[in-house]
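Researcher: Good morning. I'm working through a list of sequences from a screen, and I'd like to move beyond sequence-only analysis. For each chain I'm collecting a predicted structure so we can compare shapes side by side. This is the next one on the list. No need for commentary yet; just the structure.
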Amino acid sequence: MSLRSRLLCLSIALVAVGLLGAGLIVTTALHGYLQDRVDDRLVLTGQIAARLAPPSGTPPNAQALGVLGDTTVTYLDGGGATRRTFDASAAPPGGGPRLPALDRAAVLDRGGRPFTVPARDGDHRWRVIALAQPSQVFPPEPSDARGSVLVASSLDEVDRTVTETRTLALTVGAALLAVLAVAGWFAVRSGLRPLTRIEETATAITAGDYSQRVPELAAPHTEVGRLTACLNQMLAQIDTAFRARAEAEARTRRFFADASHELRTPLVGIKGYTDLYRMGALPTREGVDQTMTRIAAESERLTRLVEEMLLLARLDEHAGDVGSDREPAFALDLAPMDLRTLAADALHDVRALDATRPVALTGPTGGRPATAPAVADEARLRQVVTNLIGNAVAHTPPGTPVRIGVGTVDDRAVLEVADQGPGLTPTERAHVFDRFYRTDDSRARTTGGSGLGLAIAHALVTAHGGDITLDTAPGEGCTCRIRLPLPGPSYGP
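Model: Good morning. Structure tokens for this chain:
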């Protein structure tokens, strides 16, 4: 059975048990109340009849003894023999009560307590009270001739009332159960609507729609509300994980495509030059020397590209090791240093690459350069700064000013390289640290490079526990900023 059906059946069963219990209590209490009334009437009638001597003949009116309804009065002598019987009804139910043989001693033992006897015929019941007649009724007779009186009243009216009440209770209870079953079906269906929506959401997610969320149909403090919150949190994590996996797969495919292209280009050049030499297309010594020079250049380029890719692979393995106790997969030769040294060398590098280009050494936001202490691998940071200087010179028109800033900002050592070139669009800015990304779609090596320089710079700075950012806008130049943590107290001033 479904949960809805089980809840409905359980509710109806509990209500049915409650109604049956209530009906049983009511009918039992009603039967006791009506029987007590009969007993009260019996006691009153018996007391009156006990004080009267049994008449010698049939009285003209039986009600003279106080006999009402289906009631009989029987006079017994001291030995229990019947003297006279008076009936208030011409045809008592069941032919009258089946009275036991009671002598005066047995009557006295009963103590005037009513008791129940069956009818002579049928399944009728009678309520009987036995009372000994007082001595004043028979003053001239001896004590052993004193008699007793039995007053019996039919319980048909009581049983009929109780039966009708029980039938009415069962009928009303059955109707009420039917109404409650219908109302309960809709109530349970409404109460379980959040679970139905959860089922629908799970079905949609199974079909591949990971963006689905369970609607919040209940208060957060309820069981359904907490379940909805937990499921939505789980679904968000699953959606994020699937998106991350899809993005990782896309990056992997793009990486292999770009790497294949980058590696194929120098290999094709080397193969082409060797084919020329093997076919005898280089008859002169000068032609052979030029070809070998080009092969060497392509080999150097191929070697540099492979080393860059290997460095990125090592840095990827090292990711997450900053601040951990285990030995990193890519070791950095960390030592106290001052970023002003790298800034001064970068100033000379700009002048060596383009002597006509204005270059200035300032603080991070202008002014005079300041000390910028850090614990870092100087060789790796020099590689990063050299890459930034190369980009500033290669991607801006000749004569474009370059500024190198160094100092401390917000408890961080800062080194930045800024130019006043054409800048980048927001889309280009979002991908400059991606591997093999170039703003020049022509892939020209003179302007585009391999597309790994800024990715390596980002990975190296991150490996030092720092960060590298790029501030740019079209027509406003670029400012690439490196921020590293300041040394701790253990390194001294």
